[in-house]
User: What shape does this take?
Amino acid sequence: MIHFIHGTLASLTAEHAVIDCGGVGFKLGISIATSSKLSMKNGKDVLLYTYMAVSEDNISLYGFSDEDELSLFTRLISVSGIGPKAGISILGTLSPDDLRSAIANNDAKTIAQAQGVGLKTAQKLIIELKDKISLDDISAPAASSGSANGEKIQQVVDTLTLYGFQRGKVIEVLKKLDTSLPLEELISQTLRILGKEI
Assistant: This one.
């Protein structure tokens, strides 16, 4: 299996990227999110993680800007009724964190916003993937820096989860707030917003 392709970005559209590897052009299906990340890299070196879809009458390559997106894609297409095109469409509509949050919160309507994905398919996706996709993989804002600010964010998430709020919802709210606020104020503002949504 081809794990990744590294070469020069020869051409790019919203749906495809062509990467020149030693004079051979590989055409890969991509999500809008990956296309956006590649938009300023025409003629430059790029690396895309790949998935090869093989059917009776077709072999297609799909490319992803990072391994997280690739991992989610492979889980999406493991759901019967979701093929590579629908998987790419979902990843073009929702970021990996938003998708995990939608699954964790049983939010089929958000997933069904993706082109080619109906409400019933979105509900089926949630049922099949809920136990396979962990909310622990959602990136809390600023947590990746390992800073004191990141630790504070983690404290807010852990505290409010302990009181019964859904982790994904807490993280969604925190992304909209000024995370440099004191811990108590950050918890207070997060609670205020969560209270309005109940």
Notes: The chain has a mean pLDDT of 84. The chain has three domains: 4-64, 67-133, 139-197. Residues 67-133 form a domain with the DNA polymerase; domain 1 fold (CATH 1.10.150.20). The chain is about 45% helix and 20% strand.
